């Protein structure tokens, strides 16, 4: 997952926030309704959270949309353009020289094999290692897999799980493109400088990445159709099925946030702040952060905000 994150960060945008004049309450209500209607045409999870001054439209995204999953990205772009401002989709942005980021990415590629004398068999209980051997027997893992770095092996398993259809462009990428093309006004999120963050990453011992690898093993064991099934559930607004998928779990545990490299912004607090301001905001956020137990939607509901949209728990 870090390799994908680094590749995206090489071309990341530095986007500044700005404010628009305040509209009347009636005009804002109409604008909010138009945005919600447009957003729902995407076919993906959309919630409208209403506060005393304004509304926030939350659009749940996923990483790893199957290429043949049907949803309407044009409606997403139209939604973003109707809003006063947009919460940028990434939980954070890396800042730094694209050349330096590319250099770190190449270092990441060179890290794919464990240091001499280390093996995955030494890093996990025998029963867990047997699961890897079973995947080798099925032809999913290659000879010599035991010397692969666990994060890189997890990436290999995730690539296998996507099946023949492969991945298409996800919602976050469409937001990146729309922000750049249409100069859409954005809400600033946490930013970090790439160099210290990536220096910390390369200090992490390989053993710390074993939980990520085990979630990738569970995904491989579930079968190639799991990625497509999760992607289709997202496009059909079956949010609990998305959250329950092994394909969703591995995205969470293999992300830089899970290793303490990136602080987790308090999205509930930030959304509450947006609801106290007069501008109408569309936020595109990963659906797990929104819909998991104790996530943003649970917190906003407990705080008494009105939420309209698909069910997010069974």
Percentage of residues in strands: 5-15%
Q: Summarize the biggest pleated sheet.
A: 6 strands, mixed
Taken in chain order, the helices and strands follow as HHEEHEEHHHHEEHHHHHHEHHE
Q: Poorly predicted ranges (pLDDT <50, ≥5 residues)?
A: 4-22
Assembly classification: single chain
The secondary-structure class comes to alpha/beta
Helical segment count: 15
Number of domains: 1
In which range does the helix fraction lie?
A: 40-55%
Q: Cα-atom Rg, whole angstroms?
A: 20 Å
Q: Could you report the average pLDDT, rounded to the nearest whole number?
A: 85
C-alpha end-to-end distance: 29 Å
Overall, the morphology is globular
Per DSSP E runs of 2 or more residues, the count of β-strands stands at 8
Structure commentary:
- By secondary structure, this protein is an alpha/beta fold.
- The protein has one domain (2-308).
- The chain has 15 helices and 8 strands.
- It has helices at residues 2-10, 25-40, 73-82, 98-110, 126-137, 150-161, 171-182, 194-201, 210-222, 225-235, 239-244, 246-253, 267-275, 287-291, 296-302, and strands at 46-50, 55-61, 85-87, 93-95, 186-187, 191-193, 281-286, 306-308.
- The strands form 2 sheets. The chain has a 6-stranded mixed sheet, sandwiched between helices.
- A hairpin with a 4-residue loop joins strand 1 (46-50) and strand 2 (55-61).
């Amino acid at each position: 997952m870090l390799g994908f994150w680094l590749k995206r960060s090489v071309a990341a945008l530095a986007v500044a926030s700005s404010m628009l004049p305040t509209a009347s309450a009636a005009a804002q209500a109409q604008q909010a309704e138009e945005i919600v209607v447009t957003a729902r045409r995407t076919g993906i999870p959309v919630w409208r959270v209403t506060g005393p001054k304004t509304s926030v439209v939350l659009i749940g995204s996923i990483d790893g949309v199957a290429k043949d999953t049907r949803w309407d990205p044009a409606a997403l772009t139209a939604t973003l353009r109707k809003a006063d401002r947009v919460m940028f989709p990434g939980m954070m942005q890396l800042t730094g020289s694209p050349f330096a980021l590319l250099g770190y990415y190449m270092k990441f590629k060179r890290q794919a094999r464990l240091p001499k004398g280390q093996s995955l068999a030494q890093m996990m209980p025998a029963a867990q290692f047997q699961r890897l051997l079973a995947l080798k027997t099925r032809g999913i893992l290659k000879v010599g897999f035991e010397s692969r770095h666990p994060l890189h092996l997890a990436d290999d398993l995730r690539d296998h799980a996507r099946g023949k259809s492969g991945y298409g462009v996800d919602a976050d990428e469409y937001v990146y493109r729309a922000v750049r093309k249409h100069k859409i006004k954005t809400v600033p999120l946490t930013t970090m400088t790439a160099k210290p963050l990536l220096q910390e990453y390369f200090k992490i011992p390989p053993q710390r990445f074993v939980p990520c690898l085990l979630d990738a093993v569970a995904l491989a064991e579930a079968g190639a159709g799991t990625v497509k099934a999760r992607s289709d559930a997202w496009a059909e607004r079956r949010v609990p099925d998305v959250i329950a998928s092994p394909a969703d779990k591995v995205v969470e545990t293999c992300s830089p946030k899970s290793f303490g490299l990136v602080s987790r912004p308090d999205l509930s607090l930030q959304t509450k702040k947006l609801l106290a301001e007069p501008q109408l905001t569309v936020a595109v956020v990963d659906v797990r952060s929104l819909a998991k137990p104790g996530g943003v939607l649970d917190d906003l509901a407990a705080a008494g905000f009105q939420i309209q949209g698909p069910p997010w728990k069974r």
